[in-house]
Design brief:
Chain A: Pfam families: GvpL_GvpF. Chain A: Belongs to the gas vesicle GvpF/GvpL family. The complex is a heterodimer of chains A (273) and B (136). With 273 residues, chain A is an alpha+beta fold. In chain A, 44% of the residues are buried. The C terminus of chain A is likely disordered. Chain B is mainly α and 136 residues long. Chain B has two domains: 50 residues, no CATH class; 60 residues. Helix content of chain B is 60%, strand content 0%. In chain B, α6 runs antiparallel to α7. The N terminus and C terminus of chain B are likely disordered. Classes of the chains: A alpha+beta (273), B mainly alpha (136). Chains A and B meet through β1, α2, α3, β4 and β5 of A and α1, α2, α3, α5 and α6 of B.
Chain lengths: 273, 136
């Protein structure tokens, strides 16, 4: 069976560390380093039948497959990161053989070396801020939050038949203003937190707010950011974040990490500003 | 270098959120040419379902994908526009219902409501309402 090599990360470490510590790889095969000069790529063997152009096109359409591969990819990157600086590669970076991997390490040497130096000893914290049910539970009109404007007939029925069109309009306005106010307040809190955390971080990236269909989180995601922090300061950063939002009921803050510096890799001098 | 020792413990516990992982492995990290030429942007599902959920705003805009800008749950700009539209819609409905009170009453009420709203709204919005009342 023809095999290909799936690459997870590039490290500057001497290859030969305990292979088992890199995890199982995307198909359960052992992860091992392929070295070229001072750089090494962490790879595992994958069947060509599942990872050539045609197969990948099809497989990536399969959410279950994608989740499995994404999690395995991430676990290898995380394991490599915990053992030293590792540059995470984009999902599905695949080579025909070790020569292909070495060629990549050779031609990309300067860029990869620069990124490794820049990100060595750094980790990434993810910080997300959501509106809370507590904040959203502010009083609203009888139509309820999020209800489509059903016209005055519905409003009359909902409030003992005495609500005029004008009162209905006012209720809807108040309701909208409350919702808008909650969002504004949460965004302001998120902005303040972001400003504080940015001062403590070496760099920061703001991601799109996450879609609840993927994150399965309640509340509106008003901030989704990553902060690049020296690993030595990682705990202090997390503690500071915790302190800043302690007792805060108007927003919910979720911290994730420490991550390998995914959000900062490849964003140095390698991409157009 | 005792890298393992200085690497901090994971924050909290439990399985990592899939959205957090996909956001990073699909949209971040080093992009470097593999032997297998796969363009993640070409994948239909990624384009339709997933890329929209995880791709960065700039990248999606490059691809001409910007529907969330009109989706109130994802964009504060859309929320503001939606609010304006709803105000206008409700205003028209009120006008229809209270048509019996005559045109003067309608304008008067519109004015009162406008005053109440303007305490909370930006002046930009107020301007558009003035235009609307004058026009109607």
């Amino acid at each position: 069976m023809t095999e290909l090599l799936y690459a997870y990360a590039v490290t500057g470490r001497e290859p030969g560390t305990a292979v088992a510590s890199y995890g199982q790889g995307v198909t359960g095969a052992p992860v091992f380093p392929v070295a070229e000069g001072e750089l090494a790529a962490l790879v595992s063997r994958v069947p060509a039948a599942g990872f050539d152009e045609v197969a990948l096109q099809a497989q990536l359409e399969d959410l279950e497959w994608l989740e499995r591969v994404a999690r395995a990819h991430h676990e290898v990157v995380a394991a490599a990161s915990s053992a030293g600086c590792a540059l995470p590669l984009r999902l599905a970076t695949v080579y025909r053989d070790e020569d292909g991997v070495r060629r990549m390490l050779r031609t990309g040497h300067d860029r990869l070396r620069a990124e490794l130096d820049r990100l060595d000893g750094r980790i990434e914290w993810g910080v997300k801020v959501y509106t809370t049910p507590a904040a959203q539970a502010a009083p609203v009109g009888p139509a309820g939050p999020g209800a489509a404007p059903a016209g005055p007939a519905a409003a009359r029925g909902g409030a003992g038949g005495t609500v005029s069109g004008r009162d209905y309009l006012r209720q809807r306005l108040r309701q909208r203003q409350t919702q808008d106010g909650v969002l504004q307040q949460s965004s302001d809190l998120a902005d303040r937190l972001d400003a504080e955390l940015s001062r403590l971080a070496e760099d920061r990236r703001v991601h799109r707010p996450q879609d609840p269909r993927l994150s399965r989180r309640d509340g509106v995601n008003v901030l989704n950011a990553s902060y690049l922090v020296p690993a030595a300061d990682a705990h202090a950063f997390a503690e500071r974040a915790r302190t800043l939002v302690a007792g805060e009921t108007r927003v919910r803050v979720e911290m994730t990490g420490p991550w390998a510096p995914y959000s900062f890799a490849g964003t140095g001098a390698t991409e157009a500003p | 270098m005792t890298t393992a020792a200085r690497y901090p413990e994971p924050y909290g516990s439990g399985t990592t959120n899939l959205a957090d992982i996909l956001e990073r492995v699909l949209d971040k990290g080093i992009v470097i040419a593999g032997d297998i030429r796969i363009n993640l942007l070409d994948i239909e599902l990624l384009t339709i379902k997933l890329r929209l959920l995880v791709a960065s705003v700039d990248k999606a805009k490059e691809m001409g994908i910007d529907w969330w800008e009109d989706d109130p749950s994802l964009s504060s700009g859309a929320r503001k526009r939606g609010l304006d539209q709803e105000n206008q819609r409700l205003r028209r409905r009120i006008a229809e219902l209270e048509d019996g009170h005559g045109a003067a009453a309608e304008v008067e009420e519109g004015h009162e409501d406008r005053h109440e709203e303007s305490r909370h709204e930006e002046s930009r919005h107020e301007e558009s309402r003035h235009e609307e009342v004058e026009g109607g």
